[in-house]
Task: structure prediction
Amino acid sequence: MKPITFPLILVNLKAYSETIGDRGEELARTAAQVMSDTGICIGLAPQFTEIRHLSKLGIPIFSQHIDPIKPGAYTGHVLPEAIASAGAVGTILNHSERRLGISEIELSVKRAKAANLVSVVCADSTRVGVDVASLGPEIVAIEPPELIGTGIAVSKAKPEIVSRSVEAVKRVDPNIAVLCGAGISSGSDVAASIRLGSSGVLVASGVVKAQDWKSILLEMAQAAENAWPGEDRC
Ligand code: G3P
Result:
């Protein structure tokens, strides 16, 4: 299991056809190479079916969701312990494309902790960011839904959402890392995110749909390295 460090570039593969099967493996191997060349942590959140395989390739793997159930008679649910045993280090929760109620998020964060999974809880606004921060996740990801998949970066189009959210979440708990996402497509988008106080980015189409995975990941990782304020990557 690969530990995560910051700045973190977390790539959500969603249900994009570009990363199913061998192509997903190719992206994971490319990310592992860039991570080892630059020292910048690159995580992938693939489909559930790919977690066990991709987690052996040298990068931290996240689930896109877990259900807050305990082992037992639940059909069609995703058990946190099964995700951890497949090799994932963490899970995304409450993504705009997989929304949860606040009590479900609370239970899911608890179940993730019990299974040794890091929680990356998504929030579509600063207010929601503050609400979910009080539930004790390790990471909050701020993503305005109207910019998701547009190629218009939150860090440039709505920088105040990022900086305000970082401040507000850190007031709740300074140990929570804040990522930002939506429309991130270039190294300069990543650098802008980090200069606004974020600890990295949650990105999907800007990587998955890029012509050349190695060059976009390298561009993002180098930008993260140059913009990151401290030596400490833990
Ligand atoms: O989870 C990442 C995401 O929702 C942002 O998507 O395509 O705008 O990078 P995208």
